[in-house]
Amino acid sequence: MPKIKPLQDLRGIAILMVVLYHSGSHFTDLVSHGNNGILLFFMISGFIITSAHDKDRGIGDFWVFMRKRVSRIHFPYIPVALLFIVMFLISGKGAEYHHDPVNIIRNLLLIQDPNESIHPYSWTLVFEMFYYLCFGILFILLRKGVLPFALALALPPIVYFLNGGEDTRNLITSFYNLYFLFGVLLAYAIKKYNFRAPISLVVVLFLVFLVFPFLTNSQPLILLSTITFFYAYINLDINIKVLEKIGDASYTIYLSHAVILTLGKYVINDELLRFVVLFTLSIVFGYLYFLLTEKKLTNIGRTLLCLNSPGGNTNKLLHRIKPR
Questions:
Q1: Cα distance between residue 253 and residue 282, in whole Å
Q2: pTM of model > 0.85
Q3: Rounded distance, CA 182 to CA 166, Å?
Q4: C-alpha 49 chain-centroid distance
Q5: Other Cβ atoms within 10 Å of 269 Cβ, number
Q6: For the chain, first and last CA: distance in Å?
Q7: DSSP H or E run through 227
Q8: 61-91 residue pLDDT tens
Q9: Burial class for 310, CB neighbours closer than 10 Å (0-12, 13-18, 19+)
Q10: How far apart are CA 231 and CA 224, in angstroms?
Q11: Residue 268: helix, strand or coil by DSSP?
Q12: E-assigned strands of the chain?
């Protein structure tokens, strides 16, 4: 996949929004909708895997795709998840599900009920793995194309929403699924309908994206504002180096900032000071975690899952029965 530099900027924007929200939502309303950075992450995920894996076909490619996703998502996550598990076991705090052995195992595998996540933000990773599985089965394994994939991902949340249901973390009916779906669709759109986006337009659309959640609770309108901002930004000719660097480390920042915030709330009493210190430490510590461990942990995963061995990206037996 040719590198689209603005994507890393978008990751940087998304993680800054999320960390601002988690570290300061109790202090100021100005960051109370920063969690919408999660929606941006879902859209980015749909865009990237479609751009990188749209040509993959059959059982062999499906198997390689899922192993890549597991090595990328699970292995940097497991040390942080284990830290939270130990913290709850030692302290005795938390709900019953924090101490349930079956739920602990499910959390390590990222197949838990999103509402019973021990790492407080790992529920989003459950959604990510659900998306990858849906994409892998319908796009790579069965090659059913966009329409069946769109129906499978979009119909349940749309029906649920039209019947008056509130947005939930239910994997099947959550409105979040549409963000991943539109990321997939935008990956196709940019191949045919790209344009040079003026910076002034991108700035306006970014402001709309930030402000809309304060003005309306309409999920479709918030989705629309995210789509237009995303599509305009990836058509930029430039990217911002600071955002790119933060975007590179966005996953480890996301994983580790939960530890900083959990421990920091017991140390700093002043709300403003806590907000500034925890936000800064979250970014710095997450970036260090990225530099020191992310590649190593991902490579360990790739080795254990036979992706780094000779021929590790293929499976001759499976490829023999791959549809032509």
A1: 7
A2: yes
A3: 20
A4: 12
A5: 8
A6: 22
A7: helix 219-233
A8: 999 999 999 999 999 999 999 999 999 999 9
A9: exposed
A10: 11
A11: coil
A12: none
